[in-house]
Design brief:
two-stranded antiparallel ribbon; DNA-binding; WH_DNA-bd_sf
């Protein structure tokens, strides 16, 4: 089924436009809330993924977070410069770079769960529990999970 046609398509009413606008709103609000930790919302994703053991290499992080490898490298450079993570070559395969949070990185990552839910809950405050569950269900369906 085609939901859009050349006659009914309007940029500002398209799903892509609305998803981008929603993402930009959440990103700006999360970046503002994370300012005191000196990290961005994208860096938050890296730190949390590493802390929870979901990824330990740049490739795994890129795939998990949907970030291209060039941007991932730049973000890892920044996190390393700020003393939040360390890179090391794999002993088994020198081509593989392993990542580990530093003590400072662990400390910062541990504070994120105190901040992020507040930002998301503020954005979702007008949703009922059922609406929130439906939104999540529809987004999972949209992205193919």
């Amino acid at each position: 089924m085609d939901h859009y046609t050349t006659r009914n398509f309007t940029l500002t009413q398209s799903v892509g436009f609305m998803l981008t606008k929603a993402r930009n709103l959440i990103t700006a609000e999360m970046d503002s809330a994370l300012k005191d930790l000196d990290i961005t919302s994208q860096q938050m994703g890296i730190l949390l993924s590493m802390r929870r053991g979901a990824a330990s290499t740049p490739f795994e992080l890129s795939k998990l977070l949907g970030i291209d490898t060039g941007l991932m490298t730049r973000m890892l450079d920044k996190l390393e410069t700020n003393g939040l993570l360390e890179r090391s070559r794999s002993g088994d395969d020198r081509r593989v770079v392993n990542l580990a949070l530093t003590a400072k990185g662990e400390e910062i990552a541990a504070q994120i769960p105190e901040i992020a839910p507040q930002v998301l809950n503020a954005r979702l405050k007008k949703f009922t529990k059922a609406e929130f569950q439906e939104l999540c269900r529809l987004l999972r369906k949209f992205i193919g999970d």
